[in-house]
Structures are given as C-alpha cells and as structure tokens.
Amino acid sequence: ATVTYDFNISWVTANPDGAFERPTIGINGQWPIPRIEANVGDNVIVHATNQLGNQTTSLHFHGLFMNGTAHMDGPSQVSQCSIPPGSSFTYNFTINQPGTYWYHSHTGGQYPDGLRGPLIVHDPESPFLGQYDEERILTVSDWYHEQMAILLPAFNSKGNPTGAEPVPQAALFNETQNLKVAVEPGKTYLFRMINIGAFAGQYIWFEGHNMTIVEVDGVYHQGAEAEMIYLSAAQRCSFLLTTKNETTANYAFVASMDTTLFDTLPADLNYNVTGWLAYDDAQPFPEPALVDELDPFDDITLLPYDNQTLFGEPDKTISLDVIMDNLRDGANYAFFNNITYKAPKVPSLYTALSAGDLATDPTVYGGYTNAFVLERGEIVQIVVNNLDTGRHPFHLHGHHFQALYRSAEEAGTFEDSNVTEADFPATPMRRDTFVLYPDGNIVLRFRADNPGVWLFHCHIEWHVTSGLIATMVEAPLALQQSLTIPQNHLDACAAQGISTRGN
Ligand code: C2O
Fold this sequence. Notes:
Blueprint: E1 2-14, E2 22-27, E3 36-39, E4 43-50, E5 59-62, E6 88-94, E7 99-105, E8 116-122, E9 134-143, H1 148-155, E10 170-173, E11 179-182, E12 188-195, E13 202-206, E14 211-216, E15 219-226, E16 228-231, E17 236-242, E18 251-257, E19 272-278, E20 316-326, E21 332-336, H2 348-354, E22 371-374, E23 379-386, E24 392-396, E25 401-406, E26 429-431, E27 433-436, E28 441-447, E29 452-458, H3 461-465, E30 469-474, H4 476-482, H5 487-494
Parallel strand pairs: 1-4, 3-8, 9-12, 11-19, 20-23, 22-30
Antiparallel strand pairs: 1-2, 4-6, 5-7, 7-8, 9-10, 12-17, 13-16, 13-18, 14-15, 14-17, 18-19, 20-21, 23-28, 24-27, 24-29, 25-26, 25-28, 29-30
Bound molecules: CU-O-CU linkage.
CU-O-CU linkage is lined by residues 60, 62, 75, 104, 106, 234, 395, 397, 455, 457, 459.
C-alpha cells in the first residue's frame, strides 16, 4: 500500500511541562507532531512544506535503511539541500523493515524545538504477534524552555570554552507530564518506547511490572527480562508487559535523566518524569518510590532473534577518536580524530553522483566532512575510542550494525586493550544507536550492502552541532548508476544558489 502524509511544518506554541509556554515546531498546526505509521512493504510519501518562515528544515526517518533511495534520508547538506522557507519537498520511499523508529529534523540543531515524532512499522509477520493483546507507544524526551536559536549560538561560542551543554528543564512522556496510560487487567501489552530527546539518556522502570525486551532499534531479539532499561537519545526498545489481574491500584512508571551527562545540576531541576499505568481512574495515582540503584539492563547481552552470526574479519577498519577541544575562536568543538565536521555547501551525495571516478577519492567531499569511502559488499568495522569524559550514543545511518564490544569506563583505547576476535559474541546484538562510555571504547561491524552517503554521529544534538560526525560514502560508483534526483530536490538547492554539480 501507499501511505501519504501532507506535512505543513510551522511554529505553534506549547507548554508541555506546565511551566513555560514557548514556540515549538509543529506539523499541520499541531504539537506533538503526528505519528507516521505503515506496514512492512508499504511505500511512504511525505510531502513536506516548510512554513517556518525563518528557518530551513529537513526530515530524517531515523533507522530506515533507505535502500535504493539514499536521497530520501534527510540530513541537510548530506543527502539533500535543506528545504527553504516557503517551499515543498517530497520524501518517497519503501519500508522493508519492521519495528520502532522515529523521524526528526536533520537540519542545524533543530529537532529539540519539537520537530520529532514516532514512526512505527507494523509487521504482520512479527514472531511476537501472538504474545500480546495491544500496543502502546511511549516517547520519552528532554525539554528546554529556550529555543535552539538562542541556546545554540551561546553553546557554540567562546563564552562556553568548556563546551558545557545546556541542561534541559524537564523530561516528558509523550511530550507531556502526568501521562496516564490506560491498561486493562490480565493483558499483555507491547510497549514501543522511543527516546526522542536531544541530550539526556533516560533510565526507565515500571513499578510492580517487569519488561520482556523483544526489539531494539528495529531488530527483533530473543526475549530478555529487564527491571530497568537505559535509552540514550535516539534509541528505541519494545518490550512486553503483562498487567496485574486486578484493578485495585494504579502503578507509576518513571524516566530519570542521566545526570552524569550534565556539567551542572540546577537546583530546581526535576530529573524524573512520572507516568502511570492507569487500571482504574477512581484509584489514587501514587508517587513512585525512590530507587537505590540505577542498574539498567545491558543491551549488549541481547541475542538477535534471527541468530545472525558475527560478520567475518573486517575488510576495512575505521578507527575514530572522540576529542573535545577548543579552536582558535575560543569555542569548544567535537572532533573525530583531527576533524570537526562542517557541512559542505553541496550535499555529499550530490558530490558522489557528479564526481565520476573521483567519487571514490575521499578528498572530493571536502576537508571537513570526515569522509570514508566504502566498497560495495565489504565488511566494515568502526572502532570508537572515547578520549572524552562524557557518554556518547553513536548512530549510523543506512544500517544496523553488530555491536561486538563495549569496554567499561576508563578502559582506554581498543587498540591498547587485549580484546581479540575470539572475544566477540558469536551472534552479536544489532541496533542503530549504541552508547560509548567515558574514556572507553566500542567496536561495531556492518556489511556495506546499501549504496548511499550515510552519516555516523553522536546523537546528542549539541555534539552534532559541534562536529562529532563522520560521513560514510558507500559504493559511490553504484550510486551513479542507480540514483536519479527528483526535480523538487534540485530546486531546494537552486533556491539557495547551491550548484549540484559537485563541490
Ligand atoms: Cu536520528 Cu543522523 O539521526
């Protein structure tokens, strides 16, 4: 089937924590923005019209491979020019993946202003179909009272030489507080939980109920019991939750922001947001008890449902060191190795399409894109060494990766460790966003089976704006044979005086 959405993107006002009303980015006059829903195999068309007036925009469908439609992936100046105010742009793609995703602006630090919402792909052949009665979608997020137009210039300035990220004012469930999720006794629910926040990882637990994790980031895994999960910005987790047999009480569930990410802890900050499993509205809605320990389920222990085995030894290893440092302007930047990403003028995908044989030369993508050219079909390993003291959730566009290894905090670099091939799991868990600990390292592996230009970046939006991004240019010559860019995409460039004939 074809599912069509007409999205008018414009400013609206909202006050989700009841403390402060502010402009947020809505769709069709609404915020929270609508959910995108489809079935596996559907063709999805999104007609996006930018009515913001003062900002360009774009939409990224986080976690979708965009196989054969790399130009529909969304990041501005990567797979498209950003959409100028007053104009329209059509995304058209087929979804062949089941599960829990989201969509968000991928332009200039914009999504924390509200352009972020669930994208659910239903699967008539899900192996878990018979095991639950109903579904519930739950987003968790952090929320700022100030607009990004105010926060960003201050963050990326010499007035902030340490790169301290703005601390959010609140956390939200489904972009609100005091959320009551109606449940019935003796049923099993599939909860699809999505962290659509800009910065904070969240510890999440349900009082009196256990979770059985069955999917993360669109990949089915063998059911795993958890009392508490951790979701970084951009991660998703689906779990089965079975309700009590009686309706004599309501139960709190909590998301607690990971305050280790925050440089300062404002005295008035409430790190927690509470919601309730509402069995009976006539019963009280109790405050949650304090927990003594934040000890979440470790996602690397999950086993993929399909038992996909460890990819063989890599054809190519890309080793990236995460470094935070100042530049001559006195502001703090984030680096992979010695490069802090700066978006090129011409989208990197268009450069790949127009550069002929030179498209396999990483230098044609410009000096600040951190471009790596991948050959079709090769096994690629990404090692990330954190030389920084913060946690970073790393996301790869266009793929799921196998997560082979994550060191403890303070473990140093992977190259200096004694970890070898024999230490990697036989059937590694897979997802698209994976957390790296302070001064630690991670090892990821994937097969370059999806020609396109795919970003690899920290999903903390502050770090996107300060440059913690690399560009994977995958099989550019194959792209030249297969992709045709629609005229409305080229028009977005032309309207901004951007030539699409290469850098
Ligand atoms: Cu959620 Cu670059 O993406």
